[in-house]
Amino acid sequence: VYERVFGIDWAIAGGASADVVEARFMGNAGVGLAAGASGPTTSVSVSDSTASGNLHGFLAYSDAGAVSRMSITRSTASNNSFAGFSVTANAVMTVGDSMATGNGTGLANIPAMSGFGTFETLGNNTVRHNGSATLGLITPVSGI
Fold this sequence. Notes:
- The structure is a single chain.
- The chain is mainly beta.
- The protein has strands at 2-5, 8-12, 17-21, 24-26, 31-37, 42-47, 50-52, 56-62, 68-73, 76-78, 83-87, 91-96, 99-101, 105-109, 118-121, 126-128, 132-135, 139-140.
């Protein structure tokens, strides 16, 4: 299920699985690319893509009882006013070999009413020249 929602360039939701390759999400008042779930598990794999000039560049979010997963490689989040890469409660985001620069926050695990999500970094990301590098718990993991 792909939707264009006000303030979100693209939302992938409703239990869908998607591969996003060489995409550009630019200049939104809201989110560049969102993976959201309010029912079954939604899984999104992103590679070689850019989110720039949005509120959030890439965002994974889920309602209680749902799971959303977003895995991102070789992608750039730049000049997003709140965060480049962000996750909220019940969602999982894994980021590797990517860049966050010029954002309000580079990597963000944003608290929600039901707690935090899981933000995993493969440890090979470039996070520079943001208002702050991180927000919340960012967990380093190996790529194995």
